[in-house]
Structure formats: C-alpha cells, structure tokens
C-alpha cells in the first residue's frame, strides 16, 4: 500500500491512519465468507498518496460473481471537487441475477445501496455512474444464455464522524455494495432456496 511519496518518515499522519485502517481490514476476518479481499498496487498519478484494495465475491462452487476495487487518495493540499484531503474511488462489477437484470430500475437501486451503506461512515460530494450491459450469444454459441453485467463507478469524500474519518467503514460500505450486487442477502441473513433468489430469514 504505497503512494507516490512513501519514503520512511514522509507519510502524513492522516494518510498513515487511513492506510493502517485498510491493513487492519485485510489482516482481520473477512466481512463475510463469500468475500475475499487483497492488497493491490495503488495508482501512481491520481494523488501524492494512495492505497488500494481489490475484492471478489464467490459462489459456493468458487465461481466469481462480483469483483471490485477501492482506492483511497490523499492530497494534503486538497483538490477541486474534494471536501478535504481524502477522496475514495470505488469500482464494482457483478453478474446480475435474472430477476435483477430484468428490473429497469436496477441502476437506481444499486446507487441507493451505495448511499445507504456509506451513511454510517460519513460522506459528501458523491458522484458516479452505473452501467448495465447485456451480452447475447449467436451462431455456434446461440444456445448459451444471455448474461447481464452491472458496473458501478463512484467517488466520494469521507467526512469526520466526530472521532476522525472511519476509513474501515468506507471499506465495509464498498464490500456491502459488492455483495448486494452479486445477489447475496445482507450479512447475517440466510437465503432459503425455495423460490427465485431464495427467501431471506
């Protein structure tokens, strides 16, 4: 988890705390068993300091159904459009379940998932796009079913909740959205296989 300027002793304390929070998430238990998180190289030109995580959501058969990246940027001088020195950039890609793919409002729903997940962590100046892409097969592959992917790209500025910036909370929000777009029930809720998508309990 390094940034452009990362010699020993040259990391600003706010970014060091953010980086420590990301490391604690990686070293701790996974937010849920279907989710795997990893450290990844951070972009080198977006800000003087940056750290990044990647994540994947797997089905029981080890099929990856969603993936994502979370990048934490820090510029002590701030940037236009940022509320403070930090900016969080998130990407989520998921294979939509058929019942979700048919919903014309899935983009709005996924965006609401993000805003609701971020609320406890504190955020402002959020922006982003959601793209839904349908892939159809033809010719020798015409018997393969159509698939629908959803891509969410968003960025926001974390805000102080009264005891500092809750960077672990922003990671948790990203994980929650990645899991939701993959069709998983909320953490702690079990899906029963007795209907389309199961029944939550």
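-> sequence recovered:
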């Amino acid at each position: 988890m390094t940034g452009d300027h990362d010699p020993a002793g040259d990391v600003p304390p706010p970014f060091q705390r953010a980086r420590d929070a990301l490391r604690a998430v990686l070293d701790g238990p996974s937010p849920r068993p279907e989710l795997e998180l990893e450290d990844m190289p951070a972009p080198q030109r977006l800000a003087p300091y940056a750290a990044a995580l990647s994540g994947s959501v797997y089905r029981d058969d080890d099929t990856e159904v969603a993936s994502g990246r979370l990048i934490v940027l820090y510029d002590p001088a701030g940037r236009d459009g940022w509320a403070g020195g930090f900016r969080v950039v998130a990407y989520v890609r998921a294979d939509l379940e058929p019942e979700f793919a048919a919903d014309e409002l899935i983009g709005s729903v996924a965006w609401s998932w993000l805003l609701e997940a971020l609320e406890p962590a504190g955020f402002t100046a959020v922006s982003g796009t959601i793209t839904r892409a349908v892939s159809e097969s033809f010719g020798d592959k015409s018997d393969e079913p159509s698939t629908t992917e959803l891509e969410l790209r968003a960025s926001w500025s974390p805000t102080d909740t009264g005891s500092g910036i809750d960077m672990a909370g922003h990671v948790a929000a990203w994980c929650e959205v990645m899991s939701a777009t993959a069709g998983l029930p909320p953490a702690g809720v079990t899906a029963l296989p007795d209907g389309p998508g199961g029944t939550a309990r």
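The chain has four helices and eight strands.
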